[in-house]
Amino acid sequence: WFQELSPGVAAFESDSLADLKRLSNDLDHLAQENEDVIKRATKELKFGEREIINLIESFEKLTIMEDVWTRGGIVREAQTRDILKNWKDVFDFAQSNATKQLVNEQIESVLSSLESKVGQMSTWTKDYKLIYDATHATQRDVKGKIKEPSRDLGLIRWGCALSEGESTELTAILNSLLEDEMDLHVEVMRLATSMEEARAKPDRCMLVCGALWAIRSYSKIVETVSICEKNNADKPFPISLHVIRAAAEAKAEALANRAKRQESVARVLALLSKAAEEERKKILLGVGYVLYQAWKLEMGTEDIWAPLPHNVDEETQDWALTSFRLGEEAFDYFDAMPDRQLERAFAINHCAYVGTITGVESTKTSEYVNKLINLEGNPQLWTARFDDTLGCHFLRNATKMWYSTIPEERVNLSMTFRNDLVDSGMYFEDAIKNDIGDTDVRRHRTRLRALEDEYSQLKKGVGR
User: Helices (H), strands (E): how many in the chain?
Assistant: First the structure.
């Protein structure tokens, strides 16, 4: 400011400008600190000898000119009347409207910078708390270790392609976050700091969304992708981010009513119809996933293990059928591509799972189940969610036999029924042993145990 007001008087440059720069640097560095430090900073951070709030009040009253010139050392260093007399002209100049306008502009710039920094600090603090709480909750359910995020997190479904470096980075972040014996703060701080970059850069957005998916922070995925899209409104936005946002909306139960589910289904189907051929193939499974989730939400509390068909309207059942057929299309496409076997495996699993749970295309579903069983033992392709699918398949077989048998005859159910219960339990246990927090697996096993208990109580009653 002094150089602009009096360019030839460099010797009397105020310390206040240096203080202001230090304040800006302090605020920049806050994004690397933890929550407790931020709380202290908001209470204790000062500009020179003054608290931030008093400084801002000074800005508003334009008394900063007096503060800078009297406390910054200019009058203090003036040793002679001649120097004081020379500076009187400068004070007179400072009182002119032109100078006030210049100072106003400088103050507005500083205030804008401060507001931006404090806003970032507030956002970072919220990100930190959300990530910490979500990670802490997810840790209880995590048994496996992430080795390949595209496979283990199912990111391959959204049509994204992480580079080798990004895959390594995401693997390291998540395995550090999800280990039981560790202090979470450092890794949570790193991920919280990455959130700001994810809101600006689509390529970083998908990596961060992968981490948020692993800790089941679905609402944060929706928010982050939406901000990133807004910040890149003048550029083409990756279709994979549209799909993972739609999937996260469903998982976050943001599709709370039928109208919202219909809107979500229409949106992803429109994405599919407008996409270029190669991009379309990449998101087939992701769109199918969204349709399945819409079907599942529409079913509500209905027992999906009860006899089929469910009491469901034609449109809802069409979501299930379309979901299955999108999986079929993905399988047909990737089956002929030796270098896309992971996508092929996920297409097989999609059809086996959707067909098993929804009851559509029962004959084809059995074929996909057999294809999935043939993938067992392939560590490059196999993941815990495939174990869960097979567990559901055998549980479905058992429940079909249970419900199709009159109650008084259920005690005499065949060895096939008992074997299905055993096989189902085996696959669910393997899924949980290698799971990274999929709550559906535990719900499926709970349903199995309920059926096992009912059968056991029935046999005990006969024995008495």
Answer: 22, 2
